[in-house]
Amino acid sequence: MVKVCSPPEVETKRRYLVTGAAGFIGFHAAHELKKRGDLVVGLDNFNNYYPVSLKRARAAVLAEMDVPVVEADLNDLEALQELFSECAFTHVLHLAAQAGVRYAARNPGAYIQSNVAGSVTLMEVMRVQKPMPILVYASSSSVYGLSKRFPFSEDDRADLPASLYAATKRSLELLAHSYYNIYKMSVTGLRFFTVYGPWGRPDMSVMSFSRNIVDGKPIRVFQGPNSTELARDFTFIGDIVAGILGSLDSASPSADSTTPPNNRVFNLGNTQVHTVTEMVNALQEMLGIKANVRYQPLGATGDVLRTNANITAAHEAFGYTPKTNLHEGLKQFVDWYFKYYGPDGKKRAADENGYIPD
Ligand code: NAD
Fold first, then answer.
1. Is 344 helix (H, G, I), strand (E, B) or coil?
2. 24-35 and 52-64 helices cross at what angle (nearest 10)?
3. Helix (H) or strand (E) segment spanning residue 215
4. InterPro entries given for it (predicted)?
5. Exposure check for the chain: N or C terminus, fewer CB within 10 A?
6. From CA 196, how far away is CA 199, in angstroms rounded?
7. What contacts 24+ positions apart, CB below 8 Å, involve 109-118?
8. Separation of 96 CA from ligand 1 center, angstroms?
9. Distance 97 CA to ligand 1 centre (A)
């Protein structure tokens, strides 16, 4: 493997490994950590779940800031061992995962491989480092499953997953708990709620609807029983990154004799819930093009009808306070969309042309 950490950096700074750094959230988090002056190294397998050109473009922006994104899989034990021994990471921000709820029904193996097996490989490498790094990892609002107790609080039940994706995220929380218990690894899980914004994910509604609206194609909006509208606690990427940094900065060291290591899970949402139709209405207004909406019964997708976060715990622990409402956040997304995809929103790379989101 090419050298990514040079000796003076290793001696002086907080050293972060960001897994999934070519992904949507990892890209933004790595960017902000680097801006603070930390040493940041990314890892990503650049899989083709959605257009790889977008992942390469994010990695290119990071490379310009001196954040290398090592192309390796979480399950590549040797690559991980080499990277840890070279860079002596103090913190691991573990965001790499097979994401997406609907794709899980068709590709269960990808979720088990990345989210469960890959996470264990990572924690196995982490636990033998001296000193042991601090772990902050991505969980998801989907762990609340079909709960109808709104807003969701961290101590609510999380043992009734509605999708295989949710089951793997809950598994990660349980596995992290075991590394805390046995090895005194400091572990913090962040349950993200429907994240959107610039450089977003093409498989998620904000981006896939935008693409179809500019292309003049219909968009599918799912409805629950009795035409119930799906509603989400849409959370802007800038707020999520602020929560990630807050959780990293407030984390206790692993296996420290004086400070007990962390074993925490926090919701990171916005708290304002909007129906998908409200989101579409705002989007079509900003894009200046009318959406052709086709309502469709939800069926067995594994999606839940509504999400809503109680964020008191994150607020108390590290002052988490979301600042961007849906309207402002969509505006920032649309501005980026036209910058990235050109004035008509149609300048797509070869692997994005004809890409059909789930
Ligand atoms: P993303 O798909 O854009 O990013 C994940 C990245 O991980 C991708 O670039 C992918 O190539 C990489 N990856 C996947 N499997 C890997 C493996 N085995 N080895 C190395 N790299 C691998 O997704 P995102 O939206 O940035 O999500 C980041 C994290 O947050 C994920 O863990 C996701 O499950 C979680 N999450 C996201 C949301 C959201 O709304 N975006 C909500 C809840 C939870």
1. coil
2. 0
3. helix 205-215
4. Epimerase_deHydtase, NAD(P)-bd_dom_sf
5. N
6. 9
7. 110/49, 111/164, 111/165, 111/168, 112/168, 113/75, 114/74, 114/75, 115/165, 115/168, 115/169, 115/171, 115/172, 116/168, 116/171, 116/172, 116/175, 117/74, 117/75, 118/73, 118/74, 118/75
8. 4
9. 4
Residues 6+ positions from 65 with CB-CB distance below 8 Å:
31, 34, 35
As to burial, measured by CB atoms within 10 angstroms (0-12 exposed, 13-18 middle, 19+ buried), residue 187 is buried
Strand, helix or coil at 107? coil
From 18, 137, 140, the mutation candidate for ligand 1 (largest count of ligand atoms within 8 A of CB) is 140
Q: In the numeric block, which tokens belong to residue 198?
A: 């610039």
Pocket test for ligand 1, best of 17, 25, 102 (most atoms within 8 A of CB): 25
Residue showing tokens 């309207």: 327
ipTM over 0.95: yes
In the structure, what pLDDT confidence band is assigned to residue 148 with cuts at 50, 70 and 90? confident
CATH of 14-195+236-268, one of 3.40.50.720, 1.10.10.10, 2.130.10.10, 3.40.640.10: 3.40.50.720
- pLDDT averaged over the chain? 95
Does pTM surpass 0.95?
A: yes
- Residue 243 Cβ inside 6 Å of ligand 1? The answer reads no
Q: d(Cα 336, Cα 326) in Å, to the nearest integer?
A: 15
pLDDT band at 1, cuts 50/70/90? Answer: low
Q: What is the pLDDT of residues 254-271, one digit of tens each?
A: 998 899 999 999 999 999
Choosing from 165, 179, 180, 320, which is the catalytic residue?
A: 165
The CATH architecture annotation of domain 205-232+270-305+323-351 reads Alpha-Beta Complex (3.90)
